[in-house]
Each structure stands twice: as C-alpha cells, then as structure tokens.
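Hi there, hope your week has been kind to you so far. For a while now I've been wondering how a particular protein folds. I'm sending you its amino acid sequence along with the backbone structure tokens. Could you read through the record and tell me how the tokens relate to the sequence? Take your time with it, there's no hurry, and the full record follows here.
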Amino acid sequence: MRGPYLRLRNSMADTSHALPDNCPNCDAPVHGPYCAQCGQETVHELPTLREFAHEYLHHYVAADGKLLPTLKLLLFKPGQLTLEYLAGRRAQYVKPLSIYVTFSFLFFLFLSLMGSIQSSPLVYVDNRPVAHPEQHLAKLAASEADPDDRKVVDAIAGVMTELQQPGKLAEFSEHLLHRLPYAVFALMPVFAALFAFVYRNRHKNYGVHVLFTLHLNAFIFAVFLLCLIPAVRAHSGCAAAAIFAYLVVALKRVHEGRWWPQLARGLLLGTCYALLSGMVIGVVMIASSGLQLRLH
C-alpha cells in the first residue's frame, strides 16, 4: 500500500504538497494522505477564503449533508430541531451553537456591508421625517419645563449633532455593529432563564432551555437576514408576527400542553424578549456614541 503513496510523494515538485514523515497533529508515522492514528489530513496548504468556503460546503452540504436537513427543520418545523437533539439524533444536524453563530454572523456581516445605518439619520415627528433632528430636539428641550427632562433631551440633541458631522456616523455604526453581536449573544443565558422560569413546573433541565433559545434565535436571525433583501424589506413588518407564531408553535411542540396556555406563555416571553433586547440595544447604542447621561 505504501508504493503508490511514495511514488505520489516523490512525483510532487512542490514540497508544500509532499507527505510529511510524521503527522503534524499526533506525530504518528505517515503512510498516506490521512493519518492512520487520528484521521487528520497529512498535507496542509495555507488557508484561503476559497479553502474555508469549500471546507464549510463540503462538511455541511456535500459530505455529511447536515445543512439542508437542519434548515428544513429549523425554518419550517418550529421546535422539531430541539426535539431531535433531545432524542439523541444529533449527528445528522448542525450543532445548535454553530447554526446560531452562522445566522448571526451572516446577518451582521450583510448588515455592515449594506450600510443599513444611513448617513443622515431621520427622526419622525407626526409621521413626517425631520431632516435636521438636532434642531427639532433643541426646540423640544427649550420647551420642556422639567429640568431633568430638559437635560435628557439636550443630551440626545448633542449626540444627534455629533452624528451629523462627516465620518462620525460611520464610526458610530462601526462600533455599534462590533459590540451588538456580543451583547445579543450574552443575552442567551438570560432568555433561557426566562423560559426556565415560565416552565418551572415542568422540571426540565436548564440546558433544555438553552438549546431551545439557541434554535429560536437562529430562526430570528434567519428572518432578519431575509428582511435585508430589498424585495422583502417592504414587508418586514410581518417579521414580528412570524417570529411570534414560530415561538408559540415551537413551545407547543417542545413542551406540549394545550394551545391557550402556550399562547399566553408565548405572549409573556415575547414581550420580555422584546423589552430586554430593546434595553440592550439602547445600552450598546449609548456606549457606541459615547453618551453619558449624568442625572442628578
């Protein structure tokens, strides 16, 4: 068996493609393109974007065929992917954390490439866009009788004025898009704790709720990703309804029980989810803009 591999190695002019004497991973003797001890490839090239893309597609689509079955359950059968994982049928699907990271990464990547935060932020007053929001906020601050409210509006007006300067909004967007994925990911344990509290009578392990949360947020990012398409963006208002419907069906499938209790729990969890997400996004925006409110 060594003859063909030795002839192959000797025929290679480029030494970077030659078989090494020992496996780079486990140092076992090499007799072919794969290590007999650990199974790793014995010949490695410098990583390129094409190589990464080929490896991803080969691993998830061609070789193991994991991606398509995972997407089918994740997108069209709410909660079923969670049940499959809990039942031990895991090898044929992409891991929960991987599918979450994939969709969140793609969303924030395309969001940054599309420049979703425009160069001139608009504030709507009476359903009409205000071209110079800082001027409107300054007038609003002058009309405020409460000193604390005036300080808040003045601070917001200052930030809007700062963002109007060339390059400032781009810098703000860069900081925001850099911090936001980490902030959203940090909320995963909090969301799982909410699910654990609402379903505390079911006595399920906390890990079950973490698993459910990862799959749910993977679907949410998939919906957000679709909303970046211009033809779909006009109907992005339906995204919230689709996510809520998905949540209720997933809760019913995973936790069973009657529909009405699941609908009530879904409404409670969806409201808490939206409030927490809004608070975190607000905090990240404040941190990104360098705004520090000092209310005394």
Remarks:
- The CA atoms of residues 112 and 174 lie 8 Å apart.
